[in-house]
Amino acid sequence: MYVCLCEGVTDTQIRDAVYEGCCSYREVRGTLGIASQCGKCACLAKQVVRETIAEVQSSQASLAYPAGFAAA
User: Fold this and answer.
1) Is 64 left (phi over 0), alpha (psi -120 to 50) or beta?
2) Domain boundaries, the chain
3) How far are the Cα atoms of 31, 52, 62, 70 from residue 19, in angstroms, in the given order?
4) Which residues form the BFD-like [2Fe-2S]-binding domain (predicted)?
5) How far is CA 36 from the centre of its chain?
6) What is the mean pLDDT of residues 20-43?
């Protein structure tokens, strides 16, 4: 689904940006350019970012070892 019509950004692209390392709405906005023109997409874009970050955090919490774990 298109979230930002001005920049042609979909919810999948927003989710991918979070999966690739963006940790906040501000970072996603800087990476994809969402909400930089008319701003009508900001609320939905923030919601997608929040949901995706929560999903990533919960999946990391279910790992036997956190993602930051380094074997010696």
Assistant:
1) alpha
2) 2-61
3) 13, 8, 16, 20
4) 2-49
5) 16
6) 95
Three-class SS of residue 1?
Answer: coil
Amino acid at 61: A
Structure tokens at 58: 């919960």
The Cβ-side half-sphere exposure at 53, using a 13 Å CA radius, reads 14
Strand partners, 4: 9
Residue that the structure tokens 């999948």 belong to: 12
CATH number of 2-61: 1.10.10.1100
pLDDT digits (tens, 9 = 90+) for 36-70: 999 999 999 999 999 999 999 888 777 656 555 45
Count of CB atoms within 10 A of residue 1's CB?
Answer: 7
- Strand, helix or coil at 4? strand
User: Look-up: residue for tokens 């989710």?
Assistant: 15
